[in-house]
Prior knowledge:
Strand content: under 5%
Structural class: mainly alpha
Helix content: over 70%
Mean pLDDT: 87
Low-confidence stretches: none
Radius of gyration: 22 Å
Number of helices: 22
Number of strands: 0
Order of helices and strands: HHHHHHHHHHHHHHHHHHHHHH
Amino acid sequence: MLLAQILSVLIFVVMFTLIIFEKFERHHITLVCGVLTLVFVFGIGLHSFEAVKETLSFHSIFVKEFWFTGGASHETSTGINWATIFFILGMMVMVEGMARVGFFRWLCMRLAKMVNYKVKAIFIVFMIMSAILAMFIDSITVILFLATVTIELSTLLKFNPLPMILSEIFCANLGGSATMSGDPPNIIIGTSFGYSFTDFICNTGLIAGISLIFTLVFFYVAYRKELKVSQTVDVSTFPTPESAITDKRGFVFSTIIFITSIILLVTHANTGFSVATIGVFIAVVTLLCAPKHIVEILKKVDYKTVLFFIGLFVVVGGLEQTEILTLIANFIGKISGGNVYLMVAIIIWLSAIASAFIDNIPFAATMIPVIQSLSISVGVPLQTLTWSLSMGTDIGGSATPIGASANVVGTSVAGKAGYPVGWKLYCAKAVPATIIVMIISTVYIFVVYL
């Protein structure tokens, strides 16, 4: 066991280091490290084919509860979480279908027109829209389209787009923390512990809602002087929102599919449909409604992220099978001295600080078995630790340009448009905003759950 433990930790550290330095594509890193885990940790270290079987977890796909839970929790925290894979794939297909018909650009232009193209009003509306969209759609997609439209509007209205883009990035990460489908860490947490969409809305959703109010006020005060328009602009010459729609029939279908996905997610605890079933259903319907564009949509799906998840789950499975994660849980329990408040604070702030500098997805996947062990050994309700981990990983990533994928995408779009974003410029407002939300989250969890 000792050899297996050393090998699993070594592979994990190498994987994390390579991801941080970004010298290779991250899906290549996790897949190679996943193979090394299967060969060296399970094969040479443990001599256990059963560990390989449990980690690959193919058998879980063919269990009735994987597709239809019947309203009961279906926990699967060992190895590859195929429910997460299926759900993310399905949502990616839906999003590509919506993007093809111009849904996101239409929505941005429509809202801008509704507020008569007033820059400060657009600033507030786009932050709110960023948070709301990120509750249901991957924050990368949300920021990709929002940032692009923001730059387009800034050219027309003659204002600096950076304050708006940076605020949108933060709100997207905040909105993603509110639901099970909003951020990848939440998808992993929800499918691992059998939590429903409603569970997240009623817990992290309330924290995110309160935090959003403070966030809107903070960014408005922080950027109000930079949002002044340099000259009067004739808005009558602006393109209409309808001009963004490239396929009217497809636009109607995409809107219906998007609304259906939200309804299915909100009610899945009552209907018994698992998130894997919802993801597959949404993907199939999206493709059937655009038969001539199936190849185009499938080509644009981000398969690299899916492969990244698969490799990651295998490496974390190595830590779990060798009981390294149990040792980490015992260590956290020991240094907290059994003090539940201190334990929760450690999880929240450790998650936030770590996620500010490293990808929050592998961190969340690593911490899930840890908080599960802590809950059992110390007797703290699992949900309390779950919401602490969720808020810490989701919000902590907002603090730096590399903390979350949305940050990287948003700053990249701005940079290509001639508005480079350095660490100093980004962190000047993002770090204080992150601290504000983390304090709110900590106080809320202390008061409500402890």
